[in-house]
Amino acid sequence: MQIGAHLREDDDPLATAEELGIDVFQMFVTDPQGWNKPVPRPDAAAIAASPIDVVVHSSYQINVASLNNRLRMPSRKAVEQQAAAAAELGALGLVVHGGHLRDGEQSGLGFENWRKLFERQQDKGGFGVPILIENTAGGDHAMARTLESIERLWDAVGDFEQAGFCLDTCHAWAGGEDLIGLVERVRAITGRIDVVHLNNSRDEFDSGRDRHANLADGSIDPDVLVGVITAAQAPVVLETPAPGIPDDLAYLRDSL
């Protein structure tokens, strides 16, 4: 099982990954809070050639589902650009949050916008990497908070080979999904789990709040978290607070 971590604002993520002794790391290819186009990285060839795998997380403001043209259209462009940058790194995929609508908007239109993302890019030859749609923690109009919404989303995009899935344990817990047996329930819908974001939660079950905790410090039983990744058998990325990542890695290595 590949175990690793998200390396935030790291000028040399490959060196940090080697220092941590991890098998996979996650990174951004542009400012996660902005719309800037990714610029070529001088270490791209080294990252692509490394035996350590990489996952790219998209910028946070992307909302492919939005019915607002001023948000949806730049979101589509950002996914295309960041997927191309991820491909240059030899990434396993680009993680993109499921997105949301506003109060009163029809959810079916949001799911259709996800389908249009893949349809439009298919006409251009596809993305350079799989697009790994991540479940989210909160919001009554979220596209990927509940299993019901994920099923509707997969009805829209599941026939595209490049549509993958990233399971976040904190998001699932905060979104009100029981983690025991969750892997099997998700796979029954999507047929796949490409990456697991392994995070404990600072908040209680079904809180709707996305606040990550280190594995031994949150409200989720760490043994349950280990059970999730054992069932998933997918690359594991910790997005826990950085000072505790070495301890989290040690815990996982001992547990597995």
Automatic annotation (TrEMBL):
Q: Which SUPFAM superfamilies match?
A: Xylose isomerase-like
Report the cofactors.
Zn(2+)
> What superkingdom does the record give?
Bacteria
Which InterPro entries does the entry mention? AP_endonuc_2 (IPR001719), AP_endonuc_F2_Zn_BS (IPR018246), Xyl_isomerase-like_sf (IPR036237), Xyl_isomerase-like_TIM-brl (IPR013022)
Q: Which Pfam families match?
A: AP_endonuc_2
Listed A to Z, the keywords are: DNA damage, DNA repair, Hydrolase, Metal-binding, Zinc
**Which intervals hold domain Xylose isomerase-like TIM barrel?**
15-253
> Record's family?
Belongs to the AP endonuclease 2 family.
Q: Can you say what this protein is called?
A: Deoxyribonuclease IV
